[in-house]
Write a structure and sequence with these properties.
This protein has about 375 residues and is α+β, with helices and mostly antiparallel strands. It folds into 3 domains: about 120 residues, no CATH class; about 100 residues; about 80 residues, no CATH class. It is about 20% helix and about 20% strand. The strands form 4 sheets. A 6-stranded antiparallel beta sheet has the order 2-7-4-5-6-3. It is elongated.
Length: about 375
């Protein structure tokens, strides 16, 4: 009987089956083009260990590193943050209608102006211009009359020469004290502690891992490794373990990336049985954008290395205003981190012909390793 060629398989004319598992050229089945065909007599070589292609794939631990974790068991958390102990504003102005000659300073709101009282002494400044003034009157709920100590009005050169015919905005005002006559009565200003109150709500997140009962009987053993250094050979538990890691990562990511809903809308994940109003929660980045410091021009180098130092100067000036500067740190992506490395490297006066080690305890290894996170 003549033998033909099977479509999609190996040509059968040259095959000679052997009674035992002995390697011969005449009983070899090529797997090229038809991998794992049921006619295969030999299994392919299997590397019995999963390759850790991406290294540690989890992102957990960020909140723990910054000490921003706090357990809670309620549907809402409410807290207060203390305000400044001294009175200062940086959004005052002098109008263009001759207010400098009238010593009139305008505050952004009546609430801000209420902290200033007749008899207070203030530092009025913008840029490099600074003037000491005395508050003599409050002509309206948002304005004060502040007479300079060195001249009759703010427009005088001796008092700083504040513009009289053009509006000046962004003026900083700081209360540094007061002055009253001997035997004064019914004077002074009561200032209540100013606290800011905030609230946030947790959200419920869910995930699951399901497996068919018949799949649990599969014995396709592959050695797997986990992010915690352990290993094993249970194939179907690998997916369960990754589902758990993914869920733990999402527990942290929602606390970092989430935002509160700015409008009201509903959703029904259960198709008719779980309708609810989506409200969101304020994550770490949303809180920073709302009431933190956001610096958006940090190339740390640009066309010249000194630009990077100027960027740091601007950041440090803002951090100094917040106090406790030693508690601040930079969390950077790889691009910005490398830009800082390059900027620091160019500050070396011997960068063109060598390397100086003085600031690294004369350690050559430390001087050349610019991948540090603190400097």
């Amino acid at each position: 009987m003549a033998l033909g060629t099977f479509s999609g398989g190996a040509s059968a004319q040259h095959l000679t089956p052997r009674p035992d598992k002995t390697l011969f050229g005449s009983n070899y089945l090529s797997i090229t083009g038809n991998d794992f065909n049921f006619t295969k007599q030999f299994l392919p070589e299997v590397y019995e260990k999963e390759v850790e292609r991406y290294g540690n794939r989890t992102i957990g631990g960020f909140l723990r590193m910054v000490g921003a974790e706090m357990p809670m068991a309620s549907d809402q958390v409410v807290w207060a943050e203390q305000g400044r102990i001294h009175i200062a504003f940086d959004d005052c102005s002098i109008a263009a209608s001759g207010d400098a000659a009238l010593n009139k300073i305008t505050f952004a709101s009546a609430d801000n102006a209420s902290y200033i009282n007749i008899g207070d002494t203030l530092v009025v400044s913008k840029g490099g211009k600074t003037t000491k003034v005395y508050v003599t009157a409050k002509p309206s709920s948002t304005t004060i009359t502040a007479v300079p100590y060195k001249s009759a009005d703010l427009a005088d050169a001796a008092a700083g020469g504040w513009a009289n015919n053009a509006a000046t905005t962004g003026i900083a005002v700081f209360v540094y004290g007061s002055e009253y006559g001997k035997g004064s009565i019914n004077v002074g200003n009561t200032v209540n502690a100013k606290s800011e109150y905030f609230n946030n709500s947790p959200i419920i997140i869910r995930d699951k891992y399901s497996v068919n009962g018949s799949d649990t009987a599969q014995i396709g053993w592959v050695e797997v490794a986990t992010e915690v250094g352990t290993s094993g050979y249970l194939w179907y538990l690998k997916s369960e373990h990754e589902a758990r890691l993914r869920f733990e990562d999402q527990l942290e990511m929602v606390m970092i990336e989430s935002e509160k809903a700015a409008h009201s809308f509903t959703a029904d994940p259960g198709a008719g049985s779980n309708s609810f109003t989506v409200k969101g929660t304020e994550g770490l980045f949303a809180a920073i954008n709302a009431r933190g410091l956001v610096y958006s021009d940090a190339d740390f180098g640009g066309s010249h290395a000194t630009d990077g130092l100027a960027d740091f100067d601007n950041i440090l000036q803002e951090l100094d205003k917040q106090g406790a500067i030693e508690e601040n740190m930079l969390f950077l992506n790889r691009g910005v981190s490398l830009a800082i490395d390059n900027m620091l490297a160019t500050q070396n006066s011997y960068g063109a012909g060598g390397t100086s080690y003085g600031v690294f305890d004369n350690s050559e290894d430390m001087a050349l390793n610019l991948g540090f996170s603190g400097f």
